[in-house]
Design a protein that fits this description.
Blueprint: H1 19-41, H2 49-58, H3 61-76, H4 80-101, H5 104-115, H6 124-139, H7 146-176, E1 179-181, H8 192-204, E2 210-212, H9 216-225, H10 229-240, H11 252-268, H12 274-279, H13 287-320, H14 327-342, H15 346-350, H16 355-370, E3 373-376, E4 388-393, E5 399-406, E6 418-423, E7 426-428, E8 431-433, E9 436-440, H17 456-473, H18 493-499, H19 506-509, H20 524-533, H21 538-556, H22 565-573, H23 592-595, H24 605-623, H25 628-639, H26 647-655, H27 662-667, H28 670-675
Parallel strand pairs: 5-9
Antiparallel strand pairs: 1-2, 3-4, 4-5, 6-9, 7-8
Helix pairs in contact: 1-2, 1-3, 1-4, 4-7, 5-6, 7-11, 9-14, 13-14, 13-21, 16-17, 17-18, 18-24, 25-26
């Protein structure tokens, strides 16, 4: 087989790759990596940083390229064939990882270098690589007996399959749901483009009327704008029933399996819980720190959240005749209250945020902050016709990165928004190998003329994911394992969340917020509304995020036993779920962040990073949101450094001190709530 994945390539040759290429390529690249690692182990020279640590970090780059390509497409452009291959490939990669981390001879060489580290005159990045590599081996079984190592191997293989299946089930359940609406009157209140898309979807499936689905560009407008209360209820219940319906795609069994395996693995490695294992290498360090952090936020957010909920109930009763507010009313009433209080009209405001303009705007923000230019290149291969590719150039017009953008939903793409990488940045043989970064979202579908108008929430999502992308684009480290977003999980959201702040300032909005037809700039009244809405219902939103974080920590702190999943999460969410209800709804079975992605025992990091981003952005506000010195410092100490130093050290280098939470409380309007 002429396999493009086994050739030497820089840009991924998507158009040449077939599903059957992946498994042979993974096999071959694993053998190559093992050969390189064997050469390290068998080196007759005494172990040194160069011939052991450095050589190991570069040993699996070809395998990483194949893996990145496969798993990125598994999320963004999947198929049943890819999903089947994943069930074969994931255990292979898990076994390879364990083969490396449990290689006694390799660990002996690493330990020898580590034991002599104080006399080696290593620079900061080299010392960081040595320490993180040594810790990685210790934390993944190098010090265990052979019997214990075999148990870890079996657990990891089972976990690899279970987490994949969890995600596949969610995608299948989302795609399987279609609600057919016969009369357009039942869709009263929905934006015209959502109704048009529902009609088009029905025609594509050979049905009459309108088809509604659970993808976010359909689901959220229904929840926010549909006047038909029974329709909102039906959609809300369907969304909460995904992968919890006692069918082949039921994730409740998988949750029990995943949680149990993670706990068992942690205990074998000498940790009380999986959370203890995870947090050892996070900024928070311990479950107690996370618990204290969340409890402090609950105390500060509860007064505001209670007032916000009462105001919402009052609005619902007085303006919509809803005497008892239910969960499917909350988004609808919140949108109505925005309009009532601030004259906010999301559909009108969307006219000022055409996707192409917003993307150009985020590029201009990056230009003003970091001297980056983005040039679309249609010759770069892409994996789907909706994907666009850009060459990212620095001030000297040198290639800094390749950026792929993929913005709209399709059945082959999982829900949500994320940034990922097809090639990691690193330096080797006097060459700085530049990264290939991708942003994947599920924004509003374009109309028949190709026009996609974004909600303001989608605008902030784009800026958020672009912040992650900048973390990859501006990476400038020696070693691949320390590059870009390879940082502590409660630090990784700082670059993404800080970028959202530029959506709320006129100096930034003036770069791209203009009416798609008249080209009129965003009117001042809308700018004022956007600023006011920044803290709108922040108490309720904070409580919601704390709820998710608490549920995550409970699962991974060995607090789940064998009880019913719904009952368990209802107990855990009760302190933060001020709008009580008794309707069947399951958060856990769709909680892909912790059961498929990398946020297990780490969902708290969103709120943790908000403290960092608010504190960091306060310096931009003080100096000017496009202040060159501040931007250069952020790039130098945060964006370019990856994991070369502990995150608290990097933050202090940028900010000159440890973070304070006052900026977040002020931005969220919680300081006032505490004093009212």
């Amino acid at each position: 087989m002429n396999n493009p994945l086994l050739s030497s390539f820089d840009l991924v040759p998507f158009q040449e790759i077939e599903v059957d290429h992946y498994l042979p390529a993974v096999h071959a690249r694993i053998l190559e990596a093992k050969s390189q690692i064997s050469a390290i182990v068998q080196n007759p020279e005494p172990p040194t940083f160069s011939n052991t640590l450095e050589a190991l970090d570069y040993s699996s780059l070809a395998l990483e390229r194949v893996s990145q390509c496969f798993f990125n497409l598994l999320s963004a452009e999947t198929s049943q064939e890819l999903q089947a291959k994943a069930q074969e490939i994931s255990p292979l990669l898990s076994a390879f990882k364990n083969d490396v981390l449990m290689d006694a001879d390799l660990f002996e060489r690493i330990k020898s270098v580590y034991d002599h580290r104080t006399s080696l005159k290593l620079n900061t990045e080299q010392m960081r690589l040595l320490e993180t590599t040594y810790q990685s081996f210790c934390r993944n079984g190098a010090l265990l007996t052979e019997e214990e190592q075999e148990k870890i191997r079996a657990i990891d293989a089972e976990l690899a399959k279970a987490t994949l299946t969890f995600g596949n089930n969610n995608l299948a359940e989302t795609n399987a749901f279609d609600l057919c609406i016969a009369n357009v009157e039942e869709l009263d209140g929905l934006p015209a483009e959502v109704i048009q898309r529902a009609q088009t979807k029905a025609k594509e499936k050979g049905k009459k009327g309108y088809l509604l689905g659970l993808d976010f560009p359909c689901y959220m407008p229904v929840m926010k704008f549909a006047k038909n209360r029974s329709l909102r209820k039906e959609m809300w219940l369907a969304y909460g029933a995904r992968a919890a319906q006692k069918n082949e795609q039921d994730n409740t069994r998988l949750i029990k399996t995943i949680v149990g395996l993670r706990q068992k693995r942690a205990e074998i490695l000498g940790y009380a819980t999986h959370a203890d294992f995870v947090l050892e290498q996070r900024m928070a360090k311990s479950t107690q720190t996370v618990s204290n952090f969340l409890e402090d936020l609950i105390q500060k957010a509860t007064p505001a959240a209670q007032k916000e909920l009462e105001r919402l109930r009052s609005y619902g009763a007085n303006h919509h005749g809803i005497d008892r507010m239910e969960p499917w009313d909350q988004a609808f009433l919140s949108e109505g209250l925005k309009k009532h209080l601030y004259q906010w009209d999301e559909q009108e405001v969307k006219n000022y945020f055409a996707l192409d303009q917003v993307l150009e705007g985020v590029f201009l923000v990056a230009k003003k902050l970091f001297d980056l230019s983005f040039k679309r290149d249609v010759t770069i291969p892409v994996y789907h016709e909706q994907v666009k590719a850009y060459r990212v150039l620095n001030k000297a017009s040198e290639l800094t990165a390749v950026l792929y953008t993929d913005f709209h939903p399709r059945p082959s793409k999982r829900n949500g928004a994320w940034m990922t990488s097809y090639k990691t940045q690193y330096k080797k043989d006097k060459k700085n190998h530049r990264p290939h970064i991708s942003i994947v979202c599920n924004f509003t579908h374009p109309d028949d003329n190709g026009l996609a108008l974004l909600s303001f929430q989608e605008v902030t999502t784009l800026f958020h994911e672009f912040g992650h992308a900048l973390h990859g684009i501006l990476a400038d480290t020696q070693y691949p394992s320390l590059s870009g977003t390879n940082v502590a999980w409660d630090f990784v959201e700082l670059p993404s969340q800080i970028m959202e702040n530029w959506c709320f300032h006129q100096e930034s909005l003036d770069l791209f917020a203009s009416h798609w037809q008249s080209k009129e700039s965003l009117p001042e009244k809308y700018l004022n509304q956007i600023k006011a809405l920044k803290s709108f219902q922040e108490g309720l939103q904070t409580m919601r995020q704390i709820g998710f974080a608490s549920l995550d920590m409970a699962y991974h702190s060995n607090r789940y036993t064998t009880q019913n999943i719904r009952e368990f999460e209802q107990q855990l969410l009760a302190p933060t779920q001020l709008l009580k209800h008794e309707h069947p709804y399951c958060t856990s079975t769709g909680f892909s962040h912790i059961f498929q992605g990398g946020y297990a025992a780490g969902y708290y990091s969103y709120k943790w990073a908000e403290v960092l981003d608010a504190d960091a952005f306060s310096l931009f506000e003080e100096k000017g949101i496009f202040d060159a010195k501040t931007a250069n410092s952020f790039a130098k100490h945060i964006l370019s450094q990856g994991g070369t130093q502990a995150p608290e050290v990097l933050y202090r280098q940028f900010r000159g001190r440890d973070p304070k939470n006052e900026a977040l409380l002020k931005r969220a309007g919680l300081l006032q709530s505490l004093t009212d």
